[in-house]
Every structure is written in C-alpha cells, then in structure tokens.
Amino acid sequence: MRNSYNRFLKGLFAAIFFLGITSVANAQKEQPDSVSAVSRVNMDHLKKYPTLQLSNALQGQAAGLIAIPNVGGIGYDNSTFYVRGLHNNGTSEAIVIIDGIKRPIDDILPEEIESIQILKDATAKIMYGEQATNGVILVRTKRGKANERVIRVGLEYGIQPVTRMPEFLDSYNYATLFNEACVNDGIQPFYSATDLEGYKNSKGVNDLRYPNVDYYKEFLRDASTFRKATIELNGGTEKATYAVTVGYTGSSGLEKVSDRSNLNRINARGNLDLRITDFLTASADVAGRIEKKDWGAVDGATLFSEISTLRPNEYPFMIAPEDINGRDGVTTDESSLIFGTSVRKTNNLYMDMAYGGNTSERYVNSQTNLGLKFDLKSLTEGLTANAYMTFDNYSYLRQQLRNAYPTYSIERYLDDEGEEVLRFTERKKLNLPKKQSISSNDTYRNFGWRANVNYEHSFDLHDVLAEAAFRYTTEEKTGNTQDVKNGTFTFRGNYAYNKRYFVEGVLSAMGSNRFSGSNRYFFAYAIGGAWMISKEDFMKDVKAVNSLKLKINYGHLGYAGNTGHFLYRTNWKNGDKFEHKPSTGGPTTDLVRYGNPDLKWEYSNELNIGVEGTFFNNRLSADVNYFREMRKNIIGKNTVKYAAVVGDFIPAENIGEVMNQGIDAQVRWQDKIGEIHYNVGVNLTFTKNKLRKSDELDNIEDYRKSVGRSTSTIFGLQAEGLFGKDVQLAGHPLQSYGAYQAGDIAYADLNGDNMINDNDVTDLGQSFPTTTMGIDLSLNYKGFGLYILGTATTGVTNILSSSYYWNNGLDGYSVLALDRYHPVNNPTGTQPRLTTTSGANNSRNSSFWSENGSFFRLKNVELSYTLANKTGKFIGKDFKFFVRGTDLFVLSGIKDLDPERMLSGLTNYPTYRTITGGISINF
C-alpha cells in the first residue's frame, strides 16, 4: 500500500508539471473581497516587543489567536498557539506556515516578516492540508521592491528583572514548623531547643551544624539581560529584487554562583527574485539560524526544581578540610574541595553549580526555497502558473562535561557521655573527566513542494478566479520516528458579480501515510459567499457606512495532525527470553497493540458567519465572526468497552466528538485631535467547547461526567473547609485518601454513600480560558509616539498544586506554611495542617486549591521619538529613539505567583519584566 501511495504522489507530481501547473509559496492570496475569516497582525506593533521568542509577542495581537506562554529557560519559554480555542480532546494547536511550509515561528525575527495572517475558517484553511484544521498562522517574509532602496539598522539593549518570585522559610521557622508537623503525625519533635537556637543564630550557608540557606538569594541574580541588533537591506531593479535581513539576539541567565548561562543567536535571510524573461520569474531564498547556548552543569529546570524543594537546613554548602580531616576515616589536605549533603540527597547544588562542569548547546537550521512563476497570458489572458520547492534542515547538538567532588552527609548524635558528635558519610566520590561528552544529537528535515495554476479574468460586471494546486510535504527525523508524509490536491473557484455578490467553492483531496487502504485519503470541501451590502442602492444615502460586508461559509475538513502511525496495524515486538528445561528457549513475541484497519480520519464540519465594515469616513473598522465547529471521529481508545476483555491491549477507534463555538471580533477607531493622531483597537476571542462523545460510562452521576462539559474541565473534590475549624470531624463521612485529622481538608459526599472517593469528584472549572482579549492604543504627536498593549484572560481556573502551595513531606516550606491551621498555635490559619507525610488527603485537586485565573496584564509599552534628517547634515534619513517595556504589571486575584505561568520560578525560570532602550536608523 505504501508503494501505491508513493506511485500516486509521484505520478501526480509528474502530471502537474507536465501540464505546466506550478505554484507559489504564498498560496493564500490576499483578496479584499474574500469570503474567508482572516485576521491580520500589525507588524509595526509586533516589532515593538523585545523578546527572544517571537511567539510570545503575538499574544493579544489578533482576533481568533490565543497564545498561551510556557515556562522555560532563556530561549525556551515560547508560547503555544490556538486558533479559536480547543477543537478536540487531544491536540488542538494551530500550525505555522512560513513561506509555504510548516516551520517554527521562533526561528525567525519580526524584521524578516512582511505579513502574518490568522486563517480561521474552512475556506481559508483548506489549502494547507490535513494539519491545518486547527487553524493556521500564515507568515510571509519580506521580498524586494523594484526601484526602492531601504537600509535600516536597529540596536537595542535592556535588563529583565524577575517578577513574583516565590518565598520560602528560613531554617529557624522551618525547623519550628517541622516540629509541629511531627507532633501532628504523633511522633516526637525532630529538632531540640538547642537546634532551634542554633538555627536562630546560624552563621549561614556553611554552618556545619546549623546551616541556613535562602536558595533564591544565594543562587539567583535579580535580573537577566537582553541584546539585539539588526540590519535590513531591501531594493532592486525591474530585473532583480532582493530582501536581506541579518540579526543578532542574545541574553544572559540568572545564575549567580557559576558562569551565567549565555545565549547568542544569529539569524540571516536573503530573498531574491529574478525576472528571466517576460513570462518567467525565478525566486531563490536562503535563511538560517545559528544559536549557541552555554551554561554550567545545572540547567534551569533542575536549578529551580531544587531551590523550590530543598530544606533551608538541608546541608552546608562546603565543609572545611579541618572540620572533617581524620573523622570517620576521612583524609584530606587543605586544598581539598569537600561539600555537604544530606541523607536523602547525594548531590550538593552549590558544588554542581560552581564546580560541576559545563554544558554547550548548538542549534543550526537552514531553509532553502526555490520557485518559478510563469505568466502565460500569451496563451490565455489571466493565466499564471507557479512552482515552489522547499528544503529545511535542522540540527541540534548538546555536549557536556560533568565534574563530581566528594560530598558527605552530616549526622548528629549523642555519644555515651551525652556529648554531640558529628558523623560524616561519603555520598559521592571525586570524578573529574577530561573531555566533554555528547549527551544529545538530533537532526530532522522537512521537504515540501507546491504547484498550482491560476486563472483570473474580469469582463463587464463579472470577476472569475480559478486555482488548481497540489501540495506535498514530508517530515523526517533521526532515530525510530516515523516520517510524516502528506499530499493535498485542491481546486478553488471564486466568482464575483458587480463587486457586490461573491461565491467561492473549494474541493480538496487529502492524503496521509497515517492511514491505510481506502482510508488513506480524505475528500474535503468548503463553500462560502459574501454580500457587499454597502454597494446596494438603499445604502447610498447612509453616509456613516463606508463599507459593509456580510459573509458566510461552511466546510468539511479532515484532520490527521494528532494521529499516531500504524494504528491500523497489529504490531508485535521481540520480548525477553524464556526458559524451557532442559534446554533454553528463544525470545518471546510480545503484543504491542491491536490494530484497527477500519480506522478513519478525524473530521470537522465548520460554519462561519461574519460581518465586517468601515464607518464614519473609515475612522471606525470592525470585523465580527460567529463560528461553530463539530469535530467528529476523534481517535482514542475505548477503555470502557474493552478493558475487562483484553486489558491494556485496546485498538484505536473513532470514538470522540467535540462541539466548539464562539465569537471573535476586532474593532478599531482612528482619528486625530489637533496634531495628536490616535488609534485604539480591541480584539476579543470567546470560545466554549463541549465534549459530546467519548469512552465514558453512561451510568455515572451527572456531576462527574466529562460528556457535556468542556474538554479542559478540571475535576476534583468539593472542599467544605478544614476539619476542626470549619467542619466537625466526628460523624463526617469517611474519606478514602489516607489518614486525616483536625486541620485536614474536609470533602463533600456528593453521591451520599457515606464514603468520599473518586466517585465524588466534580467540575471545578476549566484550564483553558473562555475569553482572551487584546487592547492597544497608539498616540503620535509630531515626532513623539506612544504605544500600549494590554492583554486580558477570563474564564480560566488555576489549581494551586505546586510545591509553593502544598507544604508537606520532607521538602522545604513556603511562607504559606506560617498560615497553616493549628488549634493551639494558629487557630485562625487558613492553610491545611502540616505533616511529615505526603499529605495524600490534602494534596489533590479540590475546590480548596482552585483559584480564578483571570488577569489583566500590561503587556507592552513603547515610548519613542523620531528625528527626521530634513537638513541632510547627518547620515541617515531618520532616527528613532525608543524605550520599551514588557510585562510591566499584572492585575489578578492570585497575588503570590504569576497567574499566567503558575509554575514560573518553581520548575523553571520566572516571568520577566523587560526594560530596553534603543535606536533605529533609516538610511
């Protein structure tokens, strides 16, 4: 079947080129009279946002686009894109198409980009195949313009102070509260009065008996740095045009006791167009990114995971040779490096940071685009053909050197005479390798081509547009990962009468190697229409309306972007050897999974109804769309149907169904007051999805059903308060999550069976926002400019489940532990009691830990002054001086941590507040 599929693609490829059907990279043609729902990003606004990751700058920039930032180290805190919300109960991310092929948007600079469009409905997305159904971010890079010359240089530098860092207790307060936790658990206090006094008067991080460490203070700086420089060249003649962009971006990390992590990145792009003859134009584009990142032995994820969980008295950083020499058989000299650790730890974070070695990471990508454009008007007026081919190569290499110095745990005990004695136990030995080793090495490649023929003609009151296109892509990666191959043939027809009535239809045949047999291909379609109401006679006297258009479209699209490979085939693997006495047998053959040869494509039926227009002499513009999508045949495993029969070996089936609907809107007003020009805009996206079908049982209580609720619903227990403070312990239904007592969370018995377990979980909210919004304001007065962007998110619930909120076990305590409930020590406390155990009763999803995650953030501000060189005395036409700020403040009911990144500063780098200054010069 694979051979027939390859023959199909090769045959179609040859046929298309034989017929002269060729394509452009940017197939989605911008039409002012389009029937599609498309949002556009203002590129001038995007360039005002200083960031290492372009994806972070897109938040709040366009209706329908939802950007959710992630937690990560420098260069890794990118955002995930969603277009119009969640489409299924699996992967709902949108794809990014850059110059015709799927590419990472964080690999390019905003200075390289000509335009960004958000393709939201069926007629707009269908051209981009089986991965485009969740939405498309379409990026076009800059191309040269004939008889124009642009030379632009930009320089920018700034600092990035951290915001909303978690706070943890010192050794004295920790030890005091840990003693309380011991008593709560019915055991003797661990720390004596002498210990508490020792911690109160600790000498600091190297106190042998009573260390006291503020890890965030000891290991972290207060701010990172940001660096950027770009140069742009654009121009050409009628015969050849070019666009060249070269840029450098860099940043330094927060590490304090070792060399700071350092990122340096160079982007370069050259787009060239050559007019070979009157009917043939060739294009050649080359782009690349080279990134070098260096840090010590500890990456950001490890560093923050450690400092957010280590006890403040875990161990002294260093042990002086004179304090350990001769004890417990240890022999050292004065030059020895010896580090402390604890019984539960073998590593010493200070040793790893300061002396543990180094890590070097290299990331290189290259992108090549080759294209031909034919103007075939000599055959038929309005006939053109284009061909476009892309080759991308991405390589990643990480090398590291890891040093280890001796670490010793320190235990205190009393000898026969009652004197305190220290016992040192070696946990790690000296190991100093000489060379770096390769810890990771990956390469992946993307190849694609697109071919199409266009016909466009106008006569009398009629406008006709027709397009036939084929698109093929393949994605390859080193290792055992299966290549992804997709092909899509599309025919589009568009008809307009009198620039007033528009009809468009699209047919598409999609193919994917994720399916087999007749199911390998999916036939999609989309149809739409638009009515330019403002051109009707009855609107001529309505002076307030400049343009007004009603548009509606419907489509049936296939989706295979989240489908695993070979789900249609039963797979086996070689297992362990078995013994059959008196001789030894061979290896077993183990079942991996049962296949389902009848597996079909996931698909969506989509409706879009929109109104767009301009009013009051074009001062007001608006675009409002209602959308409704029914996603069906979602692939999953029906565990309810098969679990009792075949255990875990369950075939994939088409079992899911999700309905998603909402509104996206963009409104903008621009005008001037005297010499002050102002422009204010609001974009909003409201989405609400509902799971309609899944593998869920029908005979469970309504309050714990997933069907009928959002796919991002958070389920948990309904908290009634704390035992002993809000709820009487005696007579309360039994809770099945381990031992509990006064100070633990009491839960509601929702099904009335006098037992609280997982049958009592209910809807606590949803993890995905229902509404996202961007609000921007631009003011210009003579040479001065002010730009402000705010973003808002509502309808999202955060579960406070990190180490900052769950203070239990043997980890350190956050400052919230001071507010724990204790009937004697703190009867007004609002947090659960402390325990030395895992706190199984309290450490689980419940309404006690749920918090409204809505927020408003001042996302971006730029204050600038542009000096025009009217006299010509200086080099350059104009100079723009600017100061920029990002993430300046956030308003939210959550005050301790960042409401948008609840794990920032705990599992990886914190949220930054960026302040930069710079200059841009046009020559």
UniProtKB/TrEMBL annotation:
TonB-dependent receptor-like beta-barrel domain residues: 336-799
Similarity field: Belongs to the TonB-dependent receptor family.
Main localization category: membrane
Keywords: Cell outer membrane, Membrane, Signal, TonB box, Transmembrane, Transmembrane beta strand, Transport
Pfam family, one: Plug
Organism: Bacteroides xylanisolvens
InterPro entries reported in the protein's UniProt record: Beta-barrel_TonB, Beta-barrel_TonB_sf, Plug_dom, Plug_dom_sf, TonB-dep_OMP_SusC/RagA, TonB-dep_rcpt-like
Protein name: SusC/RagA family TonB-linked outer membrane protein
NCBIfam families for the chain: OMP_RagA_SusC
Record domain TonB-dependent receptor plug: where: 33-136
Membrane topology value: Multi-pass membrane protein
Domain of life where this protein originates: Bacteria
Any one cellular-component term (Gene Ontology): cell outer membrane
Tagged with keyword Transferase: no
Subcellular location: Cell outer membrane
Signal peptide: 1-27
Keyword Transport: yes
